[in-house]
## 1
Amino acid sequence: MIRVVLVDDHELFRAGVRGELGTTVEVVGEAGSVTEAVPMIRELDPDVVLLDVHLPDGGGEAVIAAIAQERPGVKFLALSVSDAAEDVIGVIRAGARGYVTKTISSDELNDAIVRVSEGDAVFSPRLAGFVLDAFREGARVGDDAELETLTAREREVLQLIARGYKYKEIAARLHLSVKTVEAHVSSVLRKLQLSSRAELTRWAHERRLI
Amino acid sequence: MTQIPVLPFERSRHDDRVIAGVCGGLASTLRVDATLVRLVFALLSLAGGAGIILYFALWAYDGGRRTWPGAVLIAAAAASLLLALGLSGGAVFGVGLIVAGLGVILIRGGSMRQGGSLPKLTIVLMVIGAAVLLGHVGTSNSFIGPGAVLGTLLLVLGPWIWQLWREHLERIRLEERAEVAARIHDSVLQTLALVQRHADDATRVSAVARRQERELRRWLYGSGFGDAVTLADALAEAATDVEELHGVRIELASAGDLPLDESLEQLVLAAREAMTNAAKFSTADEIAVYLETDGDHIAVFVRDRGVGFDRAAVPADRRGVAESIEGRMRRAGGSATIVSTPGSGTEVELTLPRAAQ
């Protein structure tokens, strides 16, 4: 049983998610703000925190910043209706293992929670698109070239995610194992979090201004 | 042997004829004033009598009644004009050979268009003609000579270029018509189908009708397409529309964006049609749409996990895919690829080279 804390300021949405989660996932606590969430997560020590990007007193980022260092075992999965790249990239950079939109189906949400609890990364199509955009070919390379660019394979995997393919379908299409696909996505997540490129954040902000 | 094209010229048989009605007929064919034509003929007559010969040539020709005497007389008129302009006899002979070469095309039915084949005789005649011409141009009146050659070529190639231009205009007209048909199919016909299906749901019907009215007005009188200024915005708008109309969920992702222009609008319309098809026929409740732009191309993927379809089994009179998606992308300079397997969904890939913009 995977223990989950749900952090979202909409009561109705929390109830909806609770109802959708299957038998492998148990909601052990619910919070509606950063101030409520931080002590609750410390106390309950859940496997996964399902986190809204926007909270009244800060945001998903603030929760992750307060917890991630002291509890490396707690995994964060961001859940949002927000379409803004800066929000999405921000919460991933802060340490979330994935990002899904609130329109996700129950099956996929359950699947995503399991995956994140196992240490894998979960990218929605939208996030995959953002990442491909941010790591555009020909962009300037920073101090660590390995962290600044995606490999051809990573690009391929991300493109298929963006096109709405599931990991299993990607594996079949590229003749890889699902594990290998997951490894590619995790590698992209690592680059996304560790890349020192200022472009990433600047890009996310500028994207609004297009 | 192919039909020699008949020039749309006939002598005037009305009251405005002065001699044989040649100038009047020519004026009405060219839609210019008859006096102007008469003036040109008078001027040409001063050039070694070319105008007079040309007059008799057209008289003889008269709407294709006597083609050969007409052609010979026209050639004589052209030759006398060239001689009067100072071209040497040898150069005129060269021009004559080139013209003969072109004449062979008319008779043998070759084509100077791309991909068309030229009769061997034409090539031989034109090469010899060009050689003779070049050999004589330098030695004769060097200033008028090249101009006269150019004029002659224009005279000879004129009808052919005119015909190509007419075909080009016709093609544009057909494309415009196909575009209007595709637009009507996407919007009005779709809406009417929807109205029929939900005839008992008054709210839905009036909402759909209102929306259609707005769209049609905007297309007929307004900016043509929404208020979106970028490709991603326009795609999002289209996705929202399809979601509203068909009750599906559309997951939209993008990497890169571009300011909207005409060919990108076509791309959006094709993507919209792909989404509509997925919403209507696939039975999937979610559709994934991904937009990607890079240095040399723009691509939009529309994917569903629905029932899929067999392309060969789609009746030919169903215009949706062929016209609204493939035809539209072709006209915009891009292409559409549809991959569908019955039972495991459909993916439509629309691509547009950046150069097509």
Note: Chain A is about 50% helix and 15% strand.
## 2
Amino acid sequence: MIRLYDYELSGNCYKVRLLLHLLGVAFTARTMDFHPGREHKSEWFLKLNPLGQLPVIDDDGLVLRDAQAILVYLASRYDASGHWYPRHDAVALGEISQWLGFADALTATAGAARLHDTMFMDADIRKCRAGAHGLLRILDEHLWFAEQAGRPWLCSADHPTIADLACFPYVMLSEEGGISRLPYPAIRRWGERIKHLPGFTPMSGIFPAAAVRSPAGSPPTPG
Amino acid sequence: MNRWFAVSACGEVPHGAVAHTQLLGQELVLWRSASGALNAWENRCPHRGVRLTLGDCVGEELRCQYHAWRFATGSGHCTHIPAHPGQKPASNIRARVYPVFEDGAFIWVNLAHDAVPPNAAAAPPGLALRSIFTRAPVAAVTGQLLHGYADHAVCLVDEFTLDVAPAAHRSVRFMLQPVTGEQCILHAHLHGEVTALERLSVLKVHNALMSAVRDRAEAARA
């Protein structure tokens, strides 16, 4: 069974849990004391991941680090539909890779601002927040025009991909780092669509959608 | 201030959606019930003060995320308190409701509680352009617009409204939403016929032009 080295409050660990839930794949979690214990920098863990970062998975002896790489692996290995990572579709792969890089930039800005505010991490907080707003502005514009073209997700496929999951956590947690999402209405609607996916699981700070299905996630009508 | 402000294009708040905005410093939750009724409320649960934008639309009610109290579309009256399911909530438990109407293109809000929506408030046929959030005050954006919009002269209608005619058969009305003293949202409505074929390219052209206005207004403030 998949073993996830996990920290409940980490957005990068959450995106792996989210995909596992959406795929209905069973896993066990080894809970790490990230803060204040810094267990991810401990001698035993550095042997597993010399970068000293979470998450890491161990799937029957295959050890992988890097949340985005783990999403690629899990979707390729366990998604029979081939939707989450359409590995024979060149356009989809190019688009997904582009947004996986964007997700790392979100971690370095919005994610760092949140660690600064909630777990006392050293960071240039003004620079982190300004960087995050720059990314969110790009994301909102992209999603607004995607809606206008009838596309609800980050990539041009008519279904969500791991690109959506990779970007979702640190966008939705941005306010814990002092980054308001009030300027980004298209991002809000996209977040609602993700929350309505069957099998969606929340984390602390990311609330589930109401149990009663409302069509909040449907793209706005043109006009 | 007794004045109506455009705060969003209608299509940005679909049925069942909850949106977040701010007008003259007042945070608002804009939400539309499952049947389509539109509401503009203070973004604050009357119970514990949590932002209502964290909550959800459930049918004809808005449900707070914190203790799941529910508030009715229209009146804002509390309809259900899960901790006391058998009791009818007191009538004074109520979200703060602001006057709101839509003209077919945009949603308009007035922070004066006794304001009455104007009669016959239908927008002319046209296309709502993408609204542009700007980290600069209204005056900075109007100042940039008055320098011209794609080399066309812009005229000031009032402090928050400007018009431009970039083509013989088309005009654009700009409507500024003061978010705070330091931020505003530039809304715009293109008047005139736009075919389905050219729609997306028209939206993109104006998005680029309006984003450039934003960038210049923000740079002038930096």
Note: Helices of chain A lie at 11-23, 43-48, 67-78, 90-119, 125-148, 162-172, 185-195.
